[in-house]
Amino acid sequence: MNPSNLVVILSFLSTSVLAADNCDFRLTSSGGYCICNSTYCDTVPPLVDLKSGEYQFYSTSKTNLGFGSVTGKFSVNSFSEVTVTININNTHQRIFGFGGAFTDATGINIKRLPEKAQELLLEAYFGENGIQYSIGRVPIGGTDFSTKGYTYCDTEDETLAAFALQPEDNDYKIPFLKKAIQLRGQENIKFFASAWSAPIWMKTNDEYNGFGKIKDEYYATWAYYYLKFFDAYKEQGIDFWAVTTQNEPINGLIGTSVQNNGFSYDEMKIWIKDYLGPTIRNSTYSDIKIIAHDDQRFLIPLLNNYILSDEETVNYIDGIGVHWYTDFIIPPEFLIYASSQYKDLFVLSTEACIDSVTNQGVVVDFGSWHRGERYLDDIMDDLSYDVIGWVDWNMVLNETGGPTWISNEVDSPIIVNGTDESFYKQPMFYAIGHFSKFVVPNSIRVDADIDDTDVRVLAFVRPDEKIAVVLWNKSSDKKEVTVNILDKSGTVTLDPLSINTLLYAK
Ligand SMILES: *[C@@H]1O[C@H](CO)[C@@H](O)[C@H](O)[C@H]1NC(C)=O
Ligand SMILES: *[C@@H]1O[C@H](CO)[C@@H](O)[C@H](O)[C@H]1NC(C)=O
Ligand SMILES: *[C@@H]1O[C@H](CO)[C@@H](O)[C@H](O)[C@H]1NC(C)=O
Ligand SMILES: *[C@@H]1O[C@H](CO)[C@@H](O)[C@H](O)[C@H]1NC(C)=O
Ligand SMILES: *[C@@H]1O[C@H](CO)[C@@H](O)[C@H](O)[C@H]1NC(C)=O
Ligand SMILES: CC(=O)N[C@H]1CO[C@H](CO)[C@@H](O)[C@@H]1O
């Protein structure tokens, strides 16, 4: 048949399928993953130029991983058993973005791959045919996902004259941060920095981890250390949008094996209002946003009572960072406490991963759909409570969930297999991908209702005016769903156990 006939025939169909590089699917006992190597990796089919009333529908399911895409048209009357109603007039938060962390372990694992595979992996996260992360978290020095404890000034020197970036920055972080900037464009990716441990000579216990705090006499030095870090990264062409006040300060109070600086809430208040806040605001980095907390959801009421209630302290704060590690027992309603009576603060989810507390003894559960669903559940909870974005922990880990010098192995959306130089994109990758790819920065969340409790929905009006409707079917039934937007409606099919995004042009 000649091509013009084909076009005529296609125009009579309500939907057409769009091609891209498909997932090379590997079935596992808990789901499956897409395997990629130096010559092949699945991509996201490009967004088509939709005309008014047309839609593009992207779908990922437990048995059909990757991003399938079809296009179609809304009509005046469409019906099915499940109805979704979008009200674009009822607006909520503005989305900032989605992303992951540039840990040493991430860089170490990327470097285990041949150069071509490294490129495909970075494209999967940041490229135009990938899920286009817009946020990167950068540790200030080492974390539990390093091969040892270290800082930028391990020898005692109160002037910090010996401050220097380490081989880990040059080998495992900076090259990949630069690549992310190059793939995404400088203005489309925002970085925030977080510190784990100060040099041990500044600390009460002379250790990176355990029960430790910054000695009183070193608060000013520790604040100055942040400026030295911004200087050193600026020299490499890397600027920061924000900084958190301390990664999980609770760890130093309860003595965990993760590198830390413990701060009680009273100490944190002093740290912010007398040291970190004024140091940053009086520097050439005065525009850098300050994100308080960077700790668990269950601690938010304490943050509210001790930090947000202090006007002088809250004036230095732009936002609040929350970690997901107790979310399975602490409801998202706790996020409401994070809204201060003094100032509008944004709430950003700054860390999440499947850790040992909830992994049921399986560190890397290859292809787990359930773990993808745990990401979906938390992202959707957070976004429905006005959180502006969600940031994953390690972007890449090895086959056993490392390396980590304190044996805190966890799972990750991408796992590298060093034996055959391939990498595996797990359901968690596609779960966060439906948000990072389609709910682009500056989208506004709007009301979305559904008459079926097994399907969760969120809707957004994007800056390009398209409406993004994200639909998660939690159950094993395939169903037809009618989406009503303004005066039109369209019916789409949700596969069993699937995450779907409908993009609609008004
Ligand atoms: C890379 O993946 C593609 C697609 O799965 C496969 O055809 C090819 O053989 C793989 N190459 C290597 C070197 O494994
Ligand atoms: C939204 O607002 C527009 C313009 O004000 C109005 O025409 C429309 O009916 C409203 N839609 C809903 C669902 O309230
Ligand atoms: C900047 O520093 C001066 C003196 O060191 C101090 O008085 C002032 O409060 C600081 N400014 C800010 C915004 O903290
Ligand atoms: C993978 O991680 C484990 C666990 O931390 C670590 O012991 C091992 O050395 C790592 N292997 C490679 C090849 O990175
Ligand atoms: C890594 O690849 C090798 C070769 O294909 C395979 O034998 C091994 O099982 C893979 N490892 C994992 C953890 O899947
Ligand atoms: C839209 C959709 O597919 N909904 C179904 C998901 O699965 C549950 C449980 O089987 C059904 O009740 C829903 O109708």
UniProtKB/TrEMBL annotation:
Q: Where is the Glycosyl hydrolase family 30 beta sandwich domain?
A: 443-502
What's the top EC group for this one?
hydrolase
One Pfam family this sequence matches: Glyco_hydro_30
Which residue positions does the secretion signal occupy?
1-19
MF terms in GO: glucosylceramidase activity; hexosyltransferase activity; signaling receptor binding
Q: List the pathway annotation.
A: Sphingolipid metabolism; Lipid metabolism; sphingolipid metabolism
Q: Where is the Glycosyl hydrolase family 30 TIM-barrel domain?
A: 96-439
Q: Which top-rank group of organisms is this from? A: Eukaryota
What name is this protein filed under?
A: Glucosylceramidase
- Give the Enzyme Commission number: 3.2.1.45
The record lists the catalysed reaction(s) as: a beta-D-glucosyl-(1<->1')-N-acylsphing-4-enine + H2O = an N-acylsphing-4-enine + D-glucose; a beta-D-glucosylceramide + H2O = an N-acyl-sphingoid base + D-glucose; an N-acyl-1-beta-D-glucosyl-15-methylhexadecasphing-4-enine + H2O = an N-acyl-15-methylhexadecasphing-4-enine + D-glucose
Of which family is this protein a member?
Belongs to the glycosyl hydrolase 30 family.
